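User: For a benchmark we're assembling, each entry needs the component sequences followed by a predicted structure for the full assembly. Here are entry 17's components. Please fill in the structure.
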Amino acid sequence: MARSVTQNRKIINTAAAWAVGLLIFFPILWTILTSFKTEAQAISDPPVFLAFDWTLENYGVVMERSNYMRFLWNSIVIAGGSTILGIIIAVPAAWSMAFVPSKRTKDILLWMLSTKMLPAVGVLYPIYLLFIKLGLLDTKFGLTIVLMLINLPIIVWMLYTYFKEIPGEILEAARMDGASLKDEVLYVLTPMAIPGIASTLLLNVILAWNEAFWTLNLTAAKAAPLTAFIASYSSPEGLFYAKLSAASTMAIAPILILGWFSQKQLVSGLTFGAVK
Amino acid sequence: MYLKASMGAATAMALVMGSGAIADTITIATVNNGDMIRMQGYTDDFTAKTGHEVEWVTLEENVLRQRVTTDISTKGGAFDIMTIGMYETPIWGANGWLVPLDGLSEDYDVDDILPAMRAGLSHDGTLYAAPFYGESSMVMYRKDLMEKAGLEMPEAPTWEFIREAAAAMTDRDAEINGICLRGKAGWGEGGAFITVTGNSFGARWFDEDWNAQFDQPEWADALNFFVGMMSESGPPGYATNGFNENLSLFQQGKCGMWIDATVAASFVTNPDDSTVADQVGFALAPNTGLGKNANWLWAWALAIPAGSQKLEAAQAFLEWATSKDYIELVAENEGWANVPPGARTSLYANPDYQAVPFAKMTLDSINAADPQNPTVKPVPYVGVQFVAIPEFAGIATEVSQEFSAVYAGQQSVDEALAKAQALTNDAMEAAGYR
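Assistant: Structure for entry 17:
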């Protein structure tokens, strides 16, 4: 029997959800507001919330000082490329683990995840030396490969979880109808797992977009993405918070817009299989 | 505008073709601070003069330090010029990682570099980095509050005077703290400040045999004094305050005194940002009468990594950016108060610059610091607020964390000093110094 929800309870739940949402969103909101203040207003105590002289000066300074479009393009190529490449490799891997498991599948999955437990700085020097040898330093291609490898365990894990929810009998039926392995994966499995693949894709774009260790350490002037753009406005000797906030807003705006428009797919993918 | 740009490009081409040189594009790694950003704005002047193009990589100080250290130690070659400080220069010079600057042109006038800066950026008498700007630390104080307290700031105050003045200026109801100082963990933040404070109390990091000295009474005196004064007159939560936090407090009129980098003088006297711009006075960093003031010495300098493929272009940029002509270029366009300070002797002989209110005190503070003899007792190391050995950054960060825990009330001075002594000796033993 379905539980009846009273009107009062609905109001309380909605208010609580909004409160939590606003709490989570507040740092981003504050960054956006600060980007429209002067440097003096940005550090004023008590802080000013909305009653200040709004200015676009910080955006003007940032646009004049930095080549924003180059950083943005590098971010798009690196985040998009690493995610697509990761999906192409992870779909067959997750398929084999979900539908043709061996005795060691669980161990392999755990081992893949364990690579995420090593602090990145622990392998900085080997990777850096490898990049020098291969001529990949400060290239978008090199960074795309590294970010793909970093996120691959998560992509495989997520896809594996989604694929496990799909009854194997459907694939078996397709096979009996004469579908080849390629047809089975491309035309049967993939369309059924679209919500899962979409949310994996979006989550990994976000992870790659925000990755700040490798993107700062393996780039210089040519391949630096938006993380380096933000880092160029941070300073321990000087109060440039308004300009830093403007740079941060410009860096997160594209991913925020992408997240806003794709939130339906993201939520449906993340809750895929949650209710049986 | 178009005509101007075309003429500039034509001049550049003519210069390049005339000299027979090949125009290169060099990549420069630098920090995000006012002077460095200003320099980026004048890149066109360099390109017009030499034909070389410049690509900038601007990073936050700590990120930059990690980034350039990784690159130079692996001979990555990602950068043609690196912005480094006084800590890295002698170490990297000794490792053979930097190009010695012994082939600078005569016009450059290398002898014009301030002696303290030249000493700090050299190894075995060879200059390895050219100072873009230099700084020391000094007392910045509110003249109005000092007057209200019935006191007069001497040019070279003692710590006792500073403590007395801080107590007199403190007004908790009006949210005015007598003194604001760095307490934030980190070798370049609170670690730097407590090290120079220790220097002025006769303390030192190591004796001549590289034994840690935190078990000596001078360190206990320095740390107890600092904690006592800050408890009486410092801002709440000072354990997490660094340069920016104190700058913010001072600019909002919430500090009677602030002892910090001389470069802050231009911020606190700028009426656009500071509410107390017309009330700021300057004095030398305090002492205890032992012959050492609590001031540091630092320079952001340009260096060329060994093995650079674009040596000629890199050296041309280094000479242009740290030249007398560059200083005049900035002065002409933005006024003398905005030129990079603390690098050249001739700047301080210039009557126009002498009129800048903090010019004399900056020079006096720089001259009062001696990186070769930083402490009252003899030491085996070079460096005022740091020890120029590769292990120092790691050790000092841990020690400053212990001290910050004292400022936060999480442990006693004696406990922190005992931990600092043990961890420093352990690290030095592991590194083979003892």
